[in-house]
Amino acid sequence: MHKQPAPQLASPWARLRAALGRVVGLGGASARDRRLADEIAFHIDMATERNRRAGMSAADARRAALLEFGGIERSKEAARDEHRSRPIEDALRDLHYAMRSLRRAPAFALTTVLTLAIGIGANTAIFSAVDGVLLKPLPYADADRLMTLWQRDAAKATQDLLSPANFLDWRDRTRAFETIATAEPFSMTLTTSDGPEMIRNWNVSEAFFQTLAVRPFLGRFFTAADHLPNHAPVIVISYESWQRRFGARRDILGERLQLDGRAATIVGVIPRGAAYPAGRELWSPKVFTAEDREMRASAFLPTIGRLRAGVKPAAAEAELTGISAQLAKEYPRTNANIGAQVVPLEDHLVGGLRRTLWLLVGAVGLLLLVACANVANLLMARTKRRGRELAIRAALGAGQGRVVRQLMVENLLLAVVGAIGGVVVARWGAAAIRALSPASLPRVDQIEVDIRAFAFALGAALITTIVFGLMPSRRAARTDPQEELKSGSRSATSGRDHRRARTMIVGGEVALAVVLLAGAGLLVRSFVAVLKVDRGYQGDHVTTATMFTWQWNPGPAKLTGFADELVTRVRALPGVRAAAVATSVPLAEPIGPSTGQFTIEGRASGATGDDQAAHVTVSTPELFNVLNIPSLRGRLFTRDDDAAHTPVLLINETMARRFWPNENPIGRRVSLRYAGKPIVREVIGVVGDVRQRSLELPAEAGIFLPLAQSPTGSIMLVVRTNPATDVAIVPAIRSTVKSMNADLPIARTGTIEQLTDDALRFRRFVLLLLGSFSATALALAIVGVYGLIAQSAVERTHELGIRLALGASRSGVLSFMMREALSPAATGVVVGLGASFALTRFLRGLLYSVAPTDMVTFGVVSLMMLGLAAAASFAPAWRATRVDPLTALRHG
């Protein structure tokens, strides 16, 4: 008796394949088992019948058939394993073949992957921005009930922040909101071992963090007791400050900081991304004073409210409008035209940017279409070159479905690799967006390539590859193998349908690129127009230093004396050409009241039809020399314009033209209410317009007051230097201030050029993104044109040889090939221009001094596209004319 050999253990690969097969085979198992049982029963019945014919009894015939067949259950299981493993084996075999095929064509694989990576990466980066800024919910509970509240000026149809007294009345009288809270912009002096440092903070009212409905990251937020007068100072710090200033230590609760000469205790840390309003380092309790309760003319408090459950924003706005009407009757001097406006917090944060971000989504979507069209063209060219290989496979029995499946596996492999490359590109793109983003872009820290962005990249890659790869795959599978094998050579003329499809794809690429280029061109012209606008001042080599001197200079005389001494000392520094002190400079964030209400003696308020308000700047006489603001009529300030002399003011050209048309305003008297009670002042001069708030808005009515007659402790030192002194001036200013007061911190320093750069940052941000998309689309379209003519030259080698052999000139062949390339390019330009006329209107809000249908831009874009298409097609077309007719005919 022979000993049975021990059964061999299946290899790990076989076990894995069987496991995968069982998983794959779960679907439709019952139906397959029924078919398998029927098939086995059929084979046993046939064997039984054969045994009966051989003379066996029915029972013996059945028994013999069963013995001959073997174990029924074992046979069923073997068949099931075979059925289940076949799809896995086929898929792995297709994948292995696809990898071998792509390794044999590295240039094609690399070009396709890079094209997909660029298109998918750019889309993923923009998706990350849109996801972080628009799609991710705000980090507050029931964020849809969070509203921002505004005073609305009915006369000017503008909205403003709230005044302290109006805020208190709204808070006490509302029933539509659970809570209303506000934040007062403030600054405090932090005393450190390195000297004093100015810290910007928010003084927040009671229930501020309860209104936001946010939990502290560490510690607690403020209680009602923290808002009582003379309560021990406490502060809450931002997550960023906790990391940067305190090294992310979790034991900082209870630590004390010296703020404005008092010890303030850290009681909590705000979670990352939840700080509101943003842009400051710490929060402290606001204690309303008697002066606050009377202050209605100055509006500077950003305010939020949480709606009661079930209350709609429109109902809440109607209630606050009614409260405002009551206040207008109670305080007609300050509240006559004041209404209310309720805006959801999310709309306030991103409302102005939503349109721009979706425009970028549309632009980058066009770029992805260009990339996909290029990939489709590459796939069509490759399948054409592989025509003989695919024909042989079809002749050996591979059906159309099998060929399509094999080609689609190759496409999906390219898609996955392209998606991985796209994620890398997206990470670079997201980092660039964060670095270039303007200060007005909220939630920048939320822009990151996370799992949602990766899923987007993978989905985009799979969808685009399937959609754009299916057409060439199906076209290749439908090719007649006999015709393909008979044609034999790679120089055989391509089918008309194949050429038409490639031509349409290239034309589409060009059209999409033209749309992007037209948009980018309009933005470029707008950017240049903004740069050329007359600003009314010269800001080159001008440095500013902001400081708040109230604490150390009580009283008007000391405030004025400190400012005069500071100007005198700084003006004596090496390299300083001029120095002044002012309360504002063009494009800078206000550091105090910046608007004044006025009436003109002899006229009723509002007699001109305009609300009589103007931007107010308080300065020393040297400001006009520092900024080179021209004097147009009358005179400028002098040192004699002090508290002992007649109150005076200067007006700008816009104010003179608006309120004294065809009149001389010099000597006219104006009652101005600015940071205090109204004071009657005499107009002594007219200066040129200065664009204070924006380079893109017309200059508003402006008033200048002498510092000696309106002393203030919120000042900006403004210094013009020689170019060689720019770098050294800030340390020199700090040293000068320290010599005057060692405890006085400088809040911030900067230059007018930096302020201008910040003002242009959003426009530059959009321009760089759309410009990069356009440049990439242009490059891909030109590559498409080049590929079209290059492939056509290869496919038409035999035809061109015949033309040359029959006497065609090489210049004629060159012209023929160039026409073949420029025809789809010209069609694409025409289609692209038509689409641009329809689509560039969505850029209207981003344009300045340029029409959305600017013909100069469209003309330049058209000529550039056609010129680059001609240049790209010339080289392969010229090479086609160099073909040897005998060689071409011999290999035809």
Features:
11-stranded mixed β-sheet, 53% helix, 892 residues, disordered N terminus, alpha+beta, 6-stranded mixed beta barrel, 4 domains, 26 helices
Task: Give a written overview of the molecule.
By secondary structure, the protein is of the alpha+beta class. The protein has 4 domains: 12-88, no CATH class; 157-336, no CATH class; 353-531 and 761-890, no CATH class; 550-743, no CATH class. Helices cover 53% and strands 15% of the residues. The strands form 3 sheets. Strands 1, 2, 3, 4, 5, 6, 7, 8, 9, 10 and 11 form an 11-stranded mixed β-sheet that branches. A 6-stranded mixed β-barrel has the order 14-15-20-17-19-18. Helix 16 packs across helix 24, helix 16 (496-531) packs across helix 25 (855-881) and helix 22 (761-795) runs antiparallel to helix 24 (810-839). The radius of gyration is 39 Å and the shape is globular.
Estimate what percentage of residues fall within beta strands.
15-25%
Helical content, roughly?
Answer: 40-55%
**Which regions are unreliable across 5 or more consecutive residues at pLDDT < 50?**
1-9, 22-28, 488-494, 606-611
Largest sheet: 11 strands, mixed
Mean pLDDT: 83
- Helix tally? 26
Domain module tally: 4
Q: Evaluate the radius of gyration.
A: 39 Å
Characterize the quaternary organization of these chains: single chain
Instruction: State the separation between the terminal residues, measured CA to CA.
Output: 72 Å
Structural class: alpha+beta
How many beta strands in the DSSP annotation? Answer: 22
Molecular shape: globular
